[in-house]
Amino acid sequence: MSAFLEAASQPAGLITLGVFAGAIVLFVTGWLAPEVTGLLAMALLVAFKVLKPDEAVQGFGSPALITLIGLFAVSAGLFRSGGLDRLRALIGSDAVRTPQRMITLMVGVVAPLSGFIPNTPIVATLLPVIESWCHRRGVSPSKVLLPLSFATVLGGTISLLGTSTNLLASDVSRQLGYGSLELFSFSAIGIPIWLLGSLYMLWASDRLLPDRGLDHDDLLGDLARAGYFTDVLVPEGSELVGQSLHNSRLQRRFDVDVLELHRGEESFTAPLADLTLEAGDRLMLRCNRENLLRLQQEHTVTLAPIKAGAGEPGPTGNQPIASQRVVEVLLPNGSTITGTSVRDLRFRQTYNATLLAVRRGNQVLRERLGRVVLQAGDVLLLQAPIDAIRGMQANNDLVLLDELEKDLPTTDRKWVAVIVASLVILLPLFKLLNLMAAVTLAVVIMVATGCLKPGELQRSVRWDVILLLGSLSSFSVAMQKTGLAEAMATDLLHSLQGWPTYGVLLVVFILAQLFTEALSNGTTVVLLMPIATEIAKGLQLPPMAFIFAILFAASQSFLTPIGYQTNLMVFGPGRYRFLDMTRYGAPLTVGLALIVPWLICRHFGL
Fold first, then answer.
1. Contact partners, residue 465, CB within 8 Å, separation at least 6
2. What is the average pLDDT score of the chain?
3. Is 169:157 a contact under the CB 8 Å cutoff?
4. What H or E segment, with its residue span, contains residue 302?
5. Could you give the 3-state DSSP secondary structure of residue 217?
6. Does pLDDT of 114 surpass 70?
7. Between the CA of residue 267 and those of 284, 358, 533, what are the distances in Å?
8. For 273-277, what is the mean pLDDT?
9. 424-475, pLDDT tens digit by residue?
10. So what's the pLDDT on residue 402?
11. Of 54, 285, 358, 523, which has the maximum CB count within 10 A?
């Protein structure tokens, strides 16, 4: 009997495998949010007495997780205080004239920056800047948005602070008895990977990325051409006269949204549900041609003449209220409103915004929007007051894809934020302060100096990531305690005996790549790192070399939009298809599989 089967036949081992198998099914199918799946698995391991409560929750008190919480806050303070305004200005500059120059900036400036700041807020901040540049230059966003994501992923392995996966790997290494990773423990491998990946992107982007054009990139323009925005008048004798929109059949029987109401010199915007309609009211509707025709045939409304006047022209040439803006927002991975229908969410009341359309990949949803169940990666076209849009900028559930710099107040604290963020790197580098302590003190200074408000501090933390990583730590503890990790490593050693070190590392790296693409990077770390270190001990090789192999394979995903959250963030705005990402990322993935194990061998003298 193999060592693995023997360990799996024990009650604790059998329960652990059952819990892991169920968790993997939930991760793959997405029936539950990843963080909920992690919490469920942790609870089951405790309920069936595989782990003690303190063993199961020790990940939530780990220095790595506390560091990650502080890092979210520090990066938020840096962005919101204007600390990276120069980067935004550089990326959006008219001096950048071609996609090749833009990609050069991404790999030369954005990538190394993402080695010290979580890549999700970097992508969220630069997305509207790059989209605006694309429209000014007539460049398809599909030519530059995927390189933005890949650049931040490549830069994420320059230092320990680059990704949450790095910090999780450091914590699992500590749990396994090999100590936590230092700030630049793996930089000697990460920097060559960044440079080689950058060369690949500069060569491959023009050759392998599709050109989707600009004609259909603009949701607002697409809707306008289709005639989905219309101004109408409420005539004398209409059944709408004397009724509120809430009680009328306008929205109950027809797929119609009333965006604005003009009455004489007065103008009204959402919420309009309780406003009583009068003859002569001018309404701006979102509706399709079929419903508009029926409304006209029943003399419920009549088409309004185009009204001349000052102000910004609307999508059909009419004049919306000056304080209203039509903007695009993205639902990032981890948004709390994914999986909920627009109607159940009470979207208009919650965000004081009217949903006009949803773009999901290459599909544009315009009708029966109340029934649409929102998904990560969806791009929403909204009309809302400026104040409501500013509120969205501080909301982790939505990423604004339109620039509002001219509408936002500036701050004179940007240099405080830059200095504080720099000290977070320099103090641990020169061994003057522990990394967790440096990050925690930086958060306090950010709040005390006004770079970050207490409310913004709480909103800046990605609690879905924290819950997921904290609960996943119980996986590696269970693997060790039940003997499954050692047993699986023992069986694998029989197959790998006599292999060269490079070959063994290559097998481990490819296995971790497959796990990362199929499951998630965090799951890959907690499941494979205990097994990999046992293989290393069996072959009398440095366990840290195998920890590095798992870390790099789990931190870099280039094949699918679901493999890494920044890939999903650019998928909708770039109007990519699934195979676009695979075509562009496959050569890079194969190249890394061959190069990283070789670099690890060189680094450890193997």
1. 35, 68, 164, 334
2. 81
3. no
4. strand 302-303
5. coil
6. yes
7. 11, 27, 68
8. 79
9. 888 888 888 888 899 999 999 988 888 888 877 887 888 878 888 888 888 8
10. 67
11. 523
User: Can you tell me the distance from the alpha carbon of 26 to that of 33, in angstroms, rounded to the nearest whole number?
Assistant: 8
Q: List, edge to edge, every strand of the sheet that includes 354-360.
A: 363-365, 354-360, 379-385, 324-330, 399-400
DSSP classification of residue 341: B
Q: Is 437 exposed, middle or buried (0-12, 13-18, 19+ CB in 10 A)?
A: middle
Q: What pLDDT is recorded for position 367? A: 62
Of the chain, the end-to-end C-alpha distance in Å amounts to 33
Give the Cα separation of 521 and 556 in Å (integer): 8
Element (H or E) spanning 284, and its range? strand 282-286
Sign (positive/negative) of CA torsion 92, 97, 102, 104?
Answer: negative
DSSP one-letter code for 306: P
Give all strands (DSSP E) within 488-565, no chain letters.
Answer: none
Quote the pLDDT of residue 196: 95
- Split at pLDDT 50, 70, 90, the class of 586 is very high
- What is the pLDDT at residue 225? 47
- Give which of 170, 183, 168, 74 is closest to 465, Cα–Cα: 168
DSSP-derived secondary structure letter, 109 = I
CA 220 – CA 381 distance, rounded (Å) = 7
Which range has the worst mean pLDDT, 42-51, 515-524, 560-569?
560-569
357-385 pLDDT per residue, tens: 787 766 777 666 777 888 877 888 887 77
| Torsions phi, psi for 587 (to 5 deg) | -60, -40
DSSP string, 372-414: PBP-TT-EEEEEEEHHHHHHHHT-TT-EE-S--GGGSPP-S-H
Residues forming a β-bridge with 359: 364, 379
Angstrom distance (rounded) from CA 322 to CA 260: 12
Place of tokens 């996943």: 472
Q: 52, 42 in Cβ contact below 8 A? A: no
Contacts (Cβ under 8 Å, ≥6 apart) of 496: 503, 504, 507, 535, 539
Q: What residues are paired with 267 via a beta bridge?
A: 262
